[in-house]
Each structure stands twice: as C-alpha cells, then as structure tokens.
Amino acid sequence: MGWDFSTDPQWAAQLAWVDDFVRSECEPVDLLVKESHDLNDPVRQALIPPLQRIVKERGLWATHLGPHLGGPGYGQLKLALLNEILGRSECAPIVFGSQAPDSGNSEILAQYGTPELKERYLEPLLDNRIVSCFSMTEPQGGADPKVFTTAAVQDGDSWIINGEKWFSSFASMASFLIVMAVTDPEAPPYERHSMFVVPGGTPGINVLRDVGLGYQPLGGGGREGYVRYENVRVPADHMLGPRGGAFVVAQTRLGGGRIHHAMRTVGLVRRIFDMLCERAVSRHTQGQMLGDKQLVQEMIADSWMEIEAFRLLTLQTAWKIDQHNDYQAVRADISAVKAMMQKVLHDVSARALQLHGSLGTTHEMPFVQHLVESFVLGLADGPTEVHKTVLARLLLKKYKPAADLFPSEHLLRLRDAAEQKFAKQLAGIARS
Ligand SMILES: Cc1cc2nc3c(=O)[nH]c(=O)nc-3n(C[C@H](O)[C@H](O)[C@H](O)COP(=O)(O)OP(=O)(O)OC[C@H]3O[C@@H](n4cnc5c(N)ncnc54)[C@H](O)[C@@H]3O)c2cc1C
Fold it and tell me: How far apart are CA 348 and CA 266, in angstroms?
C-alpha cells in the first residue's frame, strides 16, 4: 500500500532552488514592475526576460505543458508543489512561462488551431514574445453562458462578429483573442456557441476601457478589457474546434489550471500567514504580546488548520488526477478545491489585516489587494456558489433514499438487525 507524503529527492532539490530563486529574484521584481504582462514596459523588459532565461536554462520553463507541446509531462502533483512556490510572487508565473490566460490559450491553440495559426501564434506565445486574451464573459453576465449574445454570422469564407465582452483580461495588449460567439442560435444552449481566433488589430475590435480592480486607481492600471466587437471579420479557418463546440473547447484550458491556481493560493496564503505570525510576536498591547492573547491565538490556530487542510485536499486532488488521468473522475474534488480557495485566502488575509491594525488597511501593506483577490478567486472560472452546487450534486448522486419512513441508520432498525445476526450466540444468555 502506498501512502507516502514525501517528495522525491531530485524534485525536492529543484523545488529548493525555485524557492530561493522566487524569494531572491522574483519578489523584488514584483515591487518594481507594474504589469508583468506588458511587453512594452521598458522596466518589465529589463527585469523579467533575464529571469526567464535562467528558468529556461534550469529546464523549468513552461513545465505545465504536456509532452505534445514539448513539455516534460511532470504530472499534476509535481506541478502542484512547484506552483505553491510560484504563488508567493505576482511575476513568478510569467518568469516560469505558465501565466494565465496564455497557458490555457496555448492548450486550446495546440489542440484546435490550424498549422498556420499555430505557426503564427503558438510558438511566440509559448516563448512569451506575445500576449493573448480569452474573451468570453459579457457585461450582462458571466456565470450563465445562456445569456451571452455576441454573435458570429457566416459571410462567404469569413465570419463577422458583433457584440460586447467584459473582463477580457489583457485585451488591449493581446496579439490574438479567443472569442466565444453564438453561431447557431436555435441549437440547444450549450451547442450554440463557437470559438474563434481574432487577430489583435483586426478592424472593429474596440476596447472601450480597461477596467481596474478595487485597489487600483480609477483611470489607471486596469487590464480587464471591456471590448466591443463591431463587424469584426475573421477567415473561416479561424474557428477553433467544431461549429457549436465552444464549451468543449473552453474546457481544454481548465485542465490542471485550477489545481495550479489553488497551489499558488496556498503559497500566497502561507506568505500572509507568516506576516500574521510575525505581527503576533512583534506587537504589544496592555503589557502583553498580541500572540499571548487567546483570541489572537485562535486566529493563528484557525489559519494554520485551514491552510493545511486546503493544501492537503489540493495535493490529494493533484495526486488523483495523476492516478486516473481523467479530469471527469475528479470533478467533485476540483470543485471543492476551487470553492475553498476563496475562503482560505479571504479569511487569512482578513485576520492579517485586522492584526496589523490601521497599517493593515493601507496601501503600504498588501492585505487589501489580497482581500480583493480572494473575491477574484471566487469569480473567475466559475463562482464559488456554482462549484459548491456541482460538488453537492455529484456527492448526492451516490445516495439512495431510505427504504421507508425511518433512516437506514435508525438505531432501532440497526439493533433489530444485530439481534437477528447474533441470535444463536445470544440464545439463553440472560440480558438486562
Ligand atoms: C480579475 C478577473 C479576471 C477575469 N478574466 C476574465 C477573462 O480573461 N475572460 C473572461 O471571459 N472572463 C474573465 N473574468 C470574468 C469571470 O469569468 C466572471 O466574473 C464570472 O464568470 C462571473 O460572471 P459575472 O462577473 O458576470 O457575475 P454574475 O454572472 O453576474 O454572477 C454574480 C454573482 O451571482 C452569484 N451566482 C451566479 N450564479 C449562481 C448560481 N448558479 N447559484 C448561486 N449564486 C450564483 C455569485 O455570487 C456570482 O458571483 C474575470 C473576472 C475577474 C474578476
């Protein structure tokens, strides 16, 4: 029976190198580069490509790629442990060639793109010479694709796309966008949409504005494109996958991505936990260290238990993916991990903010950003509520209704069954 929580020594040595590299090289860069995806920012270009070269030389570039894309095929458990370290730093994923949404978009292109599209976009994307965008959510709703109205109409050898998309991250700087559009309005809801590659700069792509998150200043720093597609014409061979197959294509990008995200969250939350504990042993009030107060001790204990439980569930899910090699078989586990992610980051950063007092609320500490990020985790790739619903439905599928009015574990029923089972042995024994 295998039941082993140790990491193989060779991988452990790689992880030790990554840990040191991320702390000493990537974390300082986070403080100087405004947007690690922005290839036109000279500060970014001065600091990130040299780190990328070191990662490539070390053989750790784009390790999420399967062997079909020239990747090492490490499996999800090893990648989970790697991503845990990358989660400490905002720019580490791009330094290691595994940043969203490019990682998922490259999977889609590799699986569904024509040889010409792959040549034009896949290689430079894998090399981080270009940036891409995934354009699916619409202003009137994201969690329910049935409300999407952006449509593509065939015109000879082309498709013409019209509609609006919301939160198309990096739309302004993307060399290509993967756009979901209704092509078959009369088909069943999940067969109505097709997926298209839209080259950046195609006439009719209008980025109305780049929306920023709550901690960013109004009118600057945003990267969530509010995009209007107006008579955007793309050649017919820019459709990815079969007509009406957009949802199947979209699934391609989720794969191990959610597990990588979860482990990055573990790495980030552990960093926040360290800040929480440092504060608890640094600050004194009413003649006592904060960490000597029982309510503060509860914060520390709860945080540690939540982080470790989340980490173990995520690692176990990664291990199960490697065992089954089938994401459907671990759908429930993946939804559980996805739903927990938001709560762990939220609760631990809220406690860290609280213990840092007024300083915790400022832009001189990262907690406000982390709190907003916890909500981002609870929205992108499906809201927490939807994942909890999926999990519950899958769990309930394994259960049957009780045979009659009383539960199958009703103690009277169980005792009667036990009496019958041991009737021979108990015959003649006096019982009170
Ligand atoms: C930082 C960030 C980056 C993003 N990047 C992209 C991107 O690159 N491309 C892209 O296409 N999209 C992107 N998104 C959009 C994301 O996918 C959507 O936010 C998400 O699908 C939810 O859609 P919505 O925001 O319209 O919320 P709505 O669909 O309006 O839902 C609002 C809330 O309603 C509740 N809710 C929804 N459905 C249910 C349900 N079934 N049961 C119970 N409650 C429910 C949840 O609380 C949910 O948060 C990004 C989002 C964020 C925050």
Answer: 11
Residue type, position 37, single letter: H
Q: Whose CA is nearest to atom 29 of ligand 1?
A: 143
pTM over 0.85: yes
Rounded to the nearest 10 degrees, how much is the dihedral formed by the CA atoms of 121, 124, 130, 136? 40
Distance from the alpha carbon of residue 80 to the mean position of ligand 1, in angstroms: 25
Q: Is the CB of 142 under 6 A from ligand 1?
A: yes
Kindly report the CATH number assigned to the domain that includes residue 389: 1.20.140.10
State if residue 69 touches ligand 1 by the CB under 6 angstroms criterion.
no
297 and 375 assigned to the same domain:
yes
Dist. CA 110–CA 118, nearest whole Å:
7
Instruction: Choose one of 90, 137, 385 to mutate for the ligand 1 pocket test, by most ligand atoms within 8 angstroms of C-beta.
Output: 137
Triad 107, 183, 170: Cα angle to 5°? 45
Ligand 1 centroid, distance to 332 Cα (angstroms): 20
Residues 118-177 pLDDT 10s: 999 999 999 999 999 999 999 999 999 999 999 999 999 999 999 999 999 999 999 999
Do 377 and 256 share a structural domain?
yes
Rounded Cα gap, residues 75 and 325, in angstroms:
9
Q: Which domain holds residue 168?
A: 132-240
**Does the C-beta of 138 come closer than 6 Å to ligand 1?**
no
Cα 401 to Cα 399: distance, rounded to the nearest angstrom: 7
